[in-house]
TrEMBL record:
GO terms for biological process: glucose metabolic process. It comes from the Bacteria. InterPro entries: GlycerAld/Erythrose_P_DH, GlycerAld_3-P_DH_AS, GlycerAld_3-P_DH_cat, GlycerAld_3-P_DH_NAD(P)-bd, Glyceraldehyde-3-P_DH_1, NAD(P)-bd_dom_sf. It is an enzyme of class 1 (oxidoreductase). It comes from Streptomyces sp. R39. Belongs to the glyceraldehyde-3-phosphate dehydrogenase family. Residues 129-289 form the Glyceraldehyde 3-phosphate dehydrogenase NAD(P) binding domain. Its EC number is 1.2.1.-. Keywords: Nucleotide-binding, Oxidoreductase. This is Glyceraldehyde-3-phosphate dehydrogenase. Pfam families: Gp_dh_C, Gp_dh_N. One of its GO terms (molecular function) is NAD binding.
Amino acid sequence: MTANDDSFINWKNREEIAESMIPLIGKLHRERDVTVLLHSRSLVNKSVVSILKTHRFARQIDGAELSVTETMPFLQALTTLDLGPSQIDIGMLAATYKADDRGLSVTAFTAEAVAGATGANKIDRREPRDVVLYGFGRIGRLVARLLIEKAGSGNGLRLRAIVVRGAGGEDIVKRASLLRRDSIHGQFQGTITVDEETSTILANGNEIKVIYADDPSAVDYTEYGIRNAILIDNTGKWRDREGLSKHLRPGIEKVVLTAPGKGDVPNIVHGVNHDTVKPDEQILSCASCTTNAIVPPLKAMADEYGVLRGHVETVHSFTNDQNLLDNYHKSERRGRSAPLNMVITETGAASAVAKALPDLKARITGSSIRVPVPDVSIAILNLQLAREASREEVLDYLREVSLTSPLRRQIDFITAPDAVSSDFIGSRHASIVDAGALKVEGDNAILYLWYDNEFGYSCQVVRVVQYVSGVEYPTFPATAV
């Protein structure tokens, strides 16, 4: 038998194990509201190859690929426990088990590591929480995909309605088609049917009412059986408290804006300041995609090295706000053709940092250049640190932050020497540190942060909504604080 034969047999064996993991992961998710993770990456609804590729990511931890043969025993141990709603990271279980020298069995170690989610300690399953999308553009449709994907057992967030302005014949058919197919993010994972008579989209069993209204004041959501819902405004038309308060109609309890909030509207970046949201707060903002990209790594750098001042330059993909060809636009430069030009424009991300990180006294400035790509941007974060550091030290620190810290869902880390923007389409992180591009000299550090300004940001929005609705379940084993 040749080495090639050995490699092929090994691959087929791992495929078989990964295939046997799928029903275990699915049953835990559907029946117990348990989301199985592998180093912060969800394994729910993943294919055999996707599970194997996610295991390969573990090379970043100790230089060796994590095998399904190592994680499968922990997954099997989870199925024997009286688990409550939670997120359980089998990659972290495997890593911490290796470092444990007490000689415990996998079953005993697992039971101890996730004790906070079992027996008398487990939390109650939440009642489904209604969600309404106001607007159905780029972010709205991606948030819809995520909500449908995460419906799971039906005890989490439940997308009940979409509010749009009527646009004439076959409106609902065309909107459903845009949800089904996306030129950047690909096909919807599931089935979609449309009932024009009842104005309903049925997506993977989720009945979504399409409500036509020209103004928030025209809708009484209780007429559609919607109660205590969270409304996600992704139109950006209203950004202050007075305007967003128009959404607080019968059936709506909270309003979440997918744009920077103005005035006293809190700007929330999940992972950084989401735990500051007051229980009685009815209106909040998820800030911008760029704010979400820079604030987590900025916080990480400030916590470890201190930051005296900084500047962020975003090289941003073009958006629907720009013109396809030269035409009138109320903003300077944005009237020039987006697919043909680099366009200098403003960004509010730097000023929004103060809302998300009020304890950071450093002055942060910012500017932006829109470029002719349809998705994925990069933020170049230039920082003056409070102490000197080496490039290797900063790299090791950010790598560890991305793997084991409370910010690991926000910050990813890549060492690929030939990575380009399209590689990050579909990334669920707020930003990805490009290790090869990082520059450090004395007290100056320049971080290059990729981010999918559509999908990664939509993931952050859904995380905020999960948190304020009480369906963001604790993660085990606990990460370092």
